[in-house]
Amino acid sequence: MQVPYLSNRKSYEDAAELMALFGPDAGYEAAARADRSLDQGNHIHFCHWRQIERLIVLLTHDQPLGTIH
Fold this sequence. Notes:
By secondary structure, this protein is mostly helical. 67% of the residues lie in helices and 0% in strands. The chain has helices at 9-22, 26-39, 43-60. It is built from 3 helices and no strands. It is globular.
């Protein structure tokens, strides 16, 4: 899995907020928001919510992902 690119702290805050509000369904909510943004033609918000979806997946794993140094 690729580590998502986070351009600012807001990305983490959005992910944390969705996780607090939606629990295990937070990734689905981020995906739904991305789809709505794409339907509205807002590609910047689409990319933002897709990255949030990837971040949520990363944050929900109990084990480390990738190479451990």
